[in-house]
Design brief:
alpha+beta; Alpha-Beta Plaits; four-stranded antiparallel beta sheet; Zinc/cadmium/mercury/lead-transporting ATPase
C-alpha cells in the first residue's frame, strides 16, 4: 500500500503531532505514520482514509482530505 499524504489543520506543536500520530496508530496499529508539522500534513501507509479521518477528528484536529 502506498503512502497517502493528508492535510490536517490545527497542529501547532510537537505535542499536537504526537497526538495525531498516536490516534492514527490506535485506530490502525499496523499503519506507518509520519507528520510534517510545518506543512500541516500527515503521511499514512496502511490505513484507509476513513480510519485516518476518524482518528484525526477524534484527536481534536481538522481532517482536510488528501494533500
Amino acid at each position: 500500500m502506498a503512502k497517502t499524504i493528508y492535510k490536517v489543520a490545527g497542529m501547532t506543536c510537537g505535542g499536537c503531532a504526537r497526538s495525531v500520530e498516536q490516534a492514527i496508530k490506535a485506530a490502525a496499529p499496523s499503519a506507518e505514520v509520519s507528520v510534517d508539522l510545518a506543512a500541516g500534513q500527515v503521511g499514512v501507509e496502511g490505513a484507509d482514509p476513513q480510519t485516518v479521518a476518524k482518528a484525526v477528528e477524534a484527536a481534536g484536529f481538522d481532517f482536510n482530505g488528501a494533500a
